[in-house]
Amino acid sequence: FKPVVRLVGPFTLKAGQKAGHSFSIDNYIGSVRVMAVAVAGNAFGNHSSVMTVRQPLMVLGTLPRLLRQRDEVVMPVTVFSSVKGTHEIVVNVKAEGALKLEGEANQKVIFEKEGEKMLRFKLRASSESGTARVTISASGGGHQAKETVELSVQNPNLRTYEVKSLMLEKGKAVRHELNLPGEKPSQMASVEVSEL
User: Fold this and answer.
1) What are phi and psi of 178, to 5 degrees?
2) What does the CA dihedral 10, 15, 18, 23 come to, rounded to 10 degrees?
3) What is the DSSP code (8-state) at residue 70?
4) Rounded to the nearest 5°, which phi and psi values hold at 114?
5) pLDDT digits (tens, 9 = 90+) for 27-50
6) CB atoms within 10 A of CB 75
7) Judging by DSSP bridges, how do beta strands 143-154 and 66-68 pair with one another?
8) Cα 97 from Cα 37, distance rounded (Å)
9) 117-168: pLDDT as tens digits
10) Neighbours of 50 (CB within 10 A)
11) pTM exceeding 0.85
12) Strands annotated E in the chain
């Protein structure tokens, strides 16, 4: 899961006054440390406490940060459920950009009790470079969960340069047709002219 860091405040309290604050942390399981810092004039103080974060339903998709063009990858999706009793969870995966989903977009998993289960979805990178976004959503047992993963699809080849030198006589014209290598977004041409 992504690290959780949140800074709120400052809040002003009068002497003897109490206040409570609540926070919503999406798609996270584990513990967080909550710290309060107090200031009164030139005096400072702090207190911290470890709190457990649990949600009834969560999903976690695991993908690399980078794929190469035409790569195939099997993405494991872990479903965490703390819903009691037997229940069915439907997991949906949507791929956008430079990544395509191969196979079924929906899979079902049945939980007989609290726990975690893993599903697998097959993805293929496109033949062009770009950014991809995968959205994983799960619903069931009266709860919903969602996670979005972004990654880059890049060309695995090194840059290619082609140089063509021409001598142009005075008063003459030349026509040269460009056949640029590589994919269109990365193609570039330049002309340098020098006089002898």
Assistant:
1) -95, 125
2) 10
3) T
4) -60, 150
5) 676 788 888 888 888 888 988 989
6) 20
7) parallel
8) 44
9) 999 999 999 888 889 999 999 998 888 989 998 999 988 777 777 888 888 7
10) 8
11) no
12) 30-40, 43-53, 57-61, 66-68, 72-81, 87-97, 99-102, 106-111, 115-125, 130-140, 143-154
Residue linked to tokens 């107090």: 38
pLDDT (0 to 100) of residue 77 = 94
Distance between start and end Cα atoms, the chain? 64
Cα gap 35→46, rounded to integer Å: 7
DSSP strand E in 41-84: where?
A: 43-53, 57-61, 66-68, 72-81
Contact by Cβ (8 Å): 72, 65 = no
- Residue 118 tokens read as 């893993």
Q: Quote the tokens at residue 57.
A: 């339903």
